[in-house]
Amino acid sequence: MSYGYGYDSVEGRALCGAITSIMTGEACEQSARMARAMGPFPGYRDARCSGVAKPAAKNNVAPMQEVIELHRSAVSEIAANEEFAYLKEEAARVWDSAAALGKKHGYRNAQVTVLAPTGTISFLMDCDTTGIEPDIALVKYKLLAGGGMLKIVNQTVTPALEKLGYNSEEIERIVAHIDAFDTIEDVEDSDGSTISSGLKPEHIAIFDCAFKAYRGQRSLGYMAHLRMMAAAQPFLSGAISKTVNMPETASVEEIMNTYIEGWRLGLKAIAIYRDGSKRSAPLNTRKTKDMGGTEQELAVASFDRGELETRIVELDQEVASLRFRLDQPSRHRMPDTRMSLTHRFEIAGHEGYITVGLYEDGQPGELFITMSKEGSTIGGLMDTVGTLTSIALQYGVPLQQLVRKFAYQRFEPSGFTKNPDIRNATSITDYVFRWLGCQFIPGYKEATSPNRGQSELPMKEIPEMEKKALNRPVSDLPRTAEKELIDVITSHAPNEGEPYVSGNGHTHADRVQEVLGNMFMDIICAHCGSNKVVRAGACGVCTECGTSQGCS
User: Fold this and answer.
1) CA nearest 440: which of 388, 389, 380?
2) Do 530 and 546 contact (CB within 8 A), yes or no?
């Protein structure tokens, strides 16, 4: 503005690009000099420094030099301008030097510049604008935390008018107009007449700001912000922290287009602020009631008060409805067609089946428990357990909580099982939920399985100790048919000694095994866990401990 160029002008963007290019080029040049004395940054010659075991390349020398070359080549894209040609020439010289030094010594810094926001700090530095941001307005009002307000007037208007060729009287008139109406534009008086500021129409765009003045009509469009950021982005290592200011009337499509255009221009970051989207703002383009604004100044702000109050009531009702819906439980029902998992189990001779319905992601959503040859009582209880579990899972109860609650419940029937991961079950419920944990809870099986530990190591001393504990060596004892029969029943294979062979070439053990056939029932003793259960009428008896297994 002080040079007589608008924010949204080719000359303004050329000045921004040249200054940013010189700053980053100088920083890279100094980084190369630091690398000469202290060495480059850790990842420059060893790409594994960031923890990547197998990086794409062994070092980052070529990629870093490529980045520097991209910065360097972007200087030629700066718009030509006779007034700022010397800055473009200086930028080219700086980048040539930075590239040459970097090829010799590398760079101490992987990145050197970003464009950070200056915010209120710029006011303390007596600056009209904050970094790459345009001025919010030529006249701004700031509400102070301790009370009162601060009126901030742009001080660049006078030198800009002098550069544009206005004389002192014209400048004084224009400045007085700004002070009276908070805008450099022509304004309409209360009687409908136009009050002219004295500024020529061709110069009005030079003084465009981010927000429309209270009594003005003009403001910078969102593309002006994006084009200025695009002028600086090629010469920055990082991104630009800058707000793209949009009017209160901005539509969803315009905001979407802002992001799309920013991507097309190669910007790394965009922040959008729509005027009026917050209840309060650090700066305003007019006096508010807290700042001592008059009723006439505040009239426009209250013209639609009734409409706003109605809208607030509607929003409160909508929020209440959403909160009510949020508090209501939500059921995730199973699809009509789903995969399932079926498991057969046996607890102390009581056989059953577990069927688990699965969601698309493989997680359980329903449970069916079917008992074989059981009365209506156990079958009904298991149906109830399965239904309750299914509903709990579909309403989002974590399976971990169900397993923690129902595992190791103790009631009959209980006993040993054929599942190597669940050797003994204290109840059917205990088995069902421990099996669910083993199947669907990561780490549960490893933590609870009897096989989770280290396998037993062979000890050569044990056989010797057993031999010494006997009164006589087994080889000294003749083997008899009675001994072989005991071996068959107890499944103890003969260790030493020769078996007695009858005349037909078969031992007593062979004939007994053939006669007995399937003497043992295919169940496990509920008391000692032995599988040597023989049928006794309609019941079963364990040959190891003598416990009756009940009638089938």
Assistant:
1) 389
2) no
Judge whether 531 and 549 are in contact, CB under 8 Å: no
Cis peptide before 413 (omega within 30 of 0): yes
Give the per-residue pLDDT at 308: 74
What is the per-residue pLDDT across 474-520, written as a single tens digit (0 to 9) for each? Answer: 555 555 555 554 455 445 554 444 444 544 555 545 544 444 445 56
The tokens describing 405, both together, are 């609650």
**pLDDT digit string (tens) for 172-185?**
999 999 998 999 99
**Kind and range of the H or E run holding 29:** helix 10-38
Distances (CA, A) of 47 to 31, 43, 67, 229, 501: 19, 5, 16, 32, 79
Rounded distance, CA 36 to CA 47, Å?
Answer: 20
User: In the structure, what pLDDT confidence band is assigned to residue 302 with cuts at 50, 70 and 90?
Assistant: very low
User: H or E element: which one contains 18?
Assistant: helix 10-38
The token pair that represents 101 in the structure block = 């030094």
Q: What is the rounded distance in angstroms from the CA atom of residue 343 to the CA atom of residue 352?
A: 9
3-class secondary-structure state, position 43: coil
| Four-residue CA torsion sign, 95, 98, 104, 108 | negative
